[in-house]
Amino acid sequence: MNRRMITALALAAAVLAPAAPASAAPAPTAVRAAPAAEVTTLADAVGLVEVTEEDRTGYTRSSFKHWNSGENAADGCNTRAEVLIAEAVIAPTVGAGCKLTGGTWISYYDNQEVTSAGSLDIDHMVPLAEAWDSGASGWTAARREAYANDQGAHVSLVAVTARSNRQKSDQDPADWMPPSPDAECRYVGEWVSTKLRWQLTADDRELEALKVYADGPCETTFVRYTPAV
């Protein structure tokens, strides 16, 4: 059978083939699986953090839009208020305009009990300036906003006393650690978890400080993180 005859038969088959029903449902779209959580020792987690020089050129706090409308845009609460509600050990009363009254919190940095939401700051575990230095300078504005309001991991944002948060400022663990000794291993683990979640880097001094804790008092600490999408 020559090529011309094969082509003719193919065209005839196409004409005679029944048309698909107009109401046929489209093929289902593949659902993208959420990243799986990773769990590893602190020492191994520290080894996963890429080391580079830091560069703060161009940083402004306004580069990270916060606080936005939070995880639930319909609840009338912004990210700050949602974190306060989630972390309260005794729930506050939520009034009109998401005004919080009452409630109790434990600031784990300094092991202080706090009974006024206004006395608390919501700390970015890895400060915004440190995130900028460590890779966020190359992100889109939308990704920086997602970082600044990240409630997808409970360690990214933490309610602590304003005093401890302001003492910390934008310092990494080479220059600041929580004043409560009992908080150190948790803090280092959550710092590394946040760096890995957002694929942020570390400089040499920071990495050496993390290794001191990972190989010493915090060697039994485990790190759990889920990569941000």
Write structural notes for this entry.
This protein is an alpha+beta fold and 229 residues long. It contains eight helices and eight strands, in the order H-E-H-H-E-E-E-E-E-H-H-E-H-H-H-E. The strands form four sheets. It has a two-stranded antiparallel ribbon with strand order 1-8. A two-stranded antiparallel sheet has the order 2-3. Helix 2 (42-48) packs parallel to helix 7. It is globular, with a radius of gyration of 25 Å. The model is unreliable at 1-31 (pLDDT under 50).
Secondary-structure blueprint:
Blueprint: H1 3-16, E1 38-41, H2 42-48, H3 79-87, E2 93-94, E3 100-101, E4 105-107, E5 112-114, E6 120-124, H4 128-133, H5 141-148, E7 157-161, H6 162-168, H7 184-197, H8 204-215, E8 222-225
Antiparallel strand pairs: 1-8, 2-3, 4-5, 6-7
Helix pairs in contact: 2-7
Poorly predicted regions: 1-31
Structural Rg: 25 Å
Task: Please give the count of helices.
Answer: 8
SSE-based structural type = alpha+beta
User: Strands across the major sheet, in which order?
Assistant: 1-8
Round the mean pLDDT to the nearest integer and report it: 89
Number of strands: 8
> How are helices and strands ordered from N to C?
HEHHEEEEEHHEHHHE
Sheet with the most strands, sense and barrel status: 2 strands, antiparallel
Kindly state the percentage of residues in helix.
25-40%
Distance between the termini: 55 Å
| Beta fraction | 5-15%
Estimate the global geometry from the Cα principal axes: globular
